[in-house]
Amino acid sequence: MTKVAISRPEPNTVLLAQLKSLRDSIPRLTGALVASTDGLLIAHDLPPHIEPTGMAALTASQLSLSHRLATTAHGGGFHEVVVHGSGGYVVIYAAGWTASLTVLAGPEVNVGRLHLESRPVARAIAEELTALANNVKRTPKKNTD
């Protein structure tokens, strides 16, 4: 049998830098990830005991439910959801229409600071992903006829 290397997309260094900077700026932040709304992992800075692709899928599920709840209750769009458990917080922020930023924090985190630092990062992530999508769309396709 021959081993075949499976190519994975290169991690986006801009997004990774934003996630690491976020973790450095908020005491008690334990990890962060960016996922598409359909549950695909885009980038992560998670502790080793959390499986990134599974967390991305869970994030997408919660995002979908939260969006539906916000739309049904108030007719407006979704911005963020906070899940507070005995072990800490999971906060999911909309990052544009196609992605989300999820942050994990310990129970002692300052939630106000968490929001203050994370919301601009979610907006920056949305802008970065939009720019990437626009660059892909602008790339001309080769005619193979």
Strand content: 15-25%
Q: Quick one: overall form?
A: globular
Helix content: 40-55%
How many helices? The count is 3
The stretches of 5 or more residues where confidence is low (pLDDT under 50) are 4-9
Characterize the largest beta sheet: strand count, sense, and whether it forms a barrel: 5 strands, antiparallel
Rg, alpha carbons: 17 Å
Structural class: alpha+beta
Multimeric organization = single chain
The string of secondary-structure elements, in order, is HEEHEEEH
Total DSSP E strands: 5
Write up this protein.
The chain has 145 residues and is of the alpha+beta class. It contains 3 helices and 5 strands. The chain has helices spanning 13-25, 52-74, 111-138; strands at residues 29-36, 41-45, 80-85, 88-94, 99-105. The chain has a 5-stranded antiparallel beta sheet, sandwiched between helices. It is globular, with a radius of gyration of 17 Å. It starts with 12 loop residues before the first helix and ends in a 7-residue tail after the last helix. Residues 4-9 have low confidence and may be disordered.
Present the secondary structure layout.
Blueprint: H1 13-25, E1 29-36, E2 41-45, H2 52-74, E3 80-85, E4 88-94, E5 99-105, H3 111-138
Antiparallel strand pairs: 1-2, 1-5, 3-4, 4-5
Relevant terms:
145 residues; 3 helices; globular
Brief characterization of the structure:
The chain is of the alpha+beta class. Helices cover 44% and strands 23% of the residues. The chain has a five-stranded antiparallel β-sheet with strand order 2-1-5-4-3, sandwiched between helices.
